[in-house]
Structures
1.
Amino acid sequence: MNNFEYCVPTKVIFGRDTQKRAGEIIREYGFRKVMIHYGGGSVKRSGLLDQVTASLEEAGIESILFGGVQANPTLSKALEGMEICRRENVDFILAVGGGSVIDTAKAIAAGACYEGDVWDFFERKSLIECALPIGVVLTYPATGSESSNVAVINNTEVQKKLLISSSWIIPRYAFLNPVLTYTLPERMTARGITDIFSHICERYFCEEKTVGVVDRMAEASLKTLVEIGGRCLREPQNYELRSEIMWIGSIAQNNFLGLGRTQDWCVHALGNELSALFNCIHGDTLSVMMGSWMRYVYRFDIPRFSRYARCVF
């Protein structure tokens, strides 16, 4: 096992109605003005946005709304959010949504504390040295961004989709209520499971011949996804299935399953290029390429791919 450092400071509040505790938890740490960042109209129609807003009001916390994030989160939207945070003296960002909303919130959090162009971070011209604190009310398990140190943003002007990685942008709190995922369309659920599966595979297929217990945990997570993924599509309001997927989504990307190994992120890197050039949905690009990637590279470590086939399928 290779040397590593590991720290995930995200406080996870998991279970039914946990989104209603947002105000209580955020108030504990003295935050006073929150920007609630969300995507489309579904959080409004479902009443979730009202619940979160009410929770903050009950805790005596002022909030402002900033919505409109779409899939393949854009730099232009992040720039809008940065301006609002600076103008309104926001001291905390609460992302209500999935990966696109969370990643945009992370870019906003880093950019609001930086005097230069936030794209500098994505092009490795500058390092993140400060960021506004972030919380998440997760509605779509897929990217694992609710407890990871990574954000991916699409700069449509230059047709580049790049990532930043920093401990500064790891969310402080993640409110995970599986019930909030009941109404996800079947195709979105499938895309999310595909993304989670890929996150684990791109850690599992590594240069090291064995990583012992971490390998076994990765195999168990993949096997669980295989066993329950199809069932979840058929039983969208099964709390236990939704719970499993939501939790595996988090541990798949907070690097718990990647410790001590050299990781291969070829499929994600290629998928990001397709998203940047053609505005493809992230989960779709992964589903198209993962099998092709495996057929290309399996011969370099046949024993590992053989074990993968036996243990997972």
2.
Amino acid sequence: IGASVNNKPITAYHYGTGEKELLFVGGIHGGYEWNTVLVAYQLMDYLQANPTVIPKDVRVTVIPVLNPDGLEKVVGTSERFLASDVPSSETLVISGRFNANTVDLNRNFDCDWQTQGVWQTKKVSGGTKAFSEPESQAIKKYVEANKITAAVVWYSAGGGVYASNCHNG
């Protein structure tokens, strides 16, 4: 669907052929939330092995990693990896949260966009403008070009399920 700052592919995988598209996105924070990438690959493996679980009117799309540069920085690849590939260095894992322009991608979207945000106690970049980053542009273009019925974006540190809303949808 696009490429990262460092020209790594951002790929969408499709399962089923129905009209209703369910979108699952992992790895928006790349190497910092590497476990969400593994969850996406596990879903892909499950759907490949069990195609009949997808209702006939549904198409499931999985984007396992939206921030391949951040993932590669931590695990050494922007593609499939093992949990054992994740280093124990917390500093390195945290550095993988950002894309190659050091932008926190989930702060690069259009709802109340700001050049700077706060993550934990640290100031982080939201980019030079909303959708300034190629990764956020790729997902924006994909969603605009396709009729998405629902989207799930996995974050690993939240400890909950949250409905996304930007001022009445």
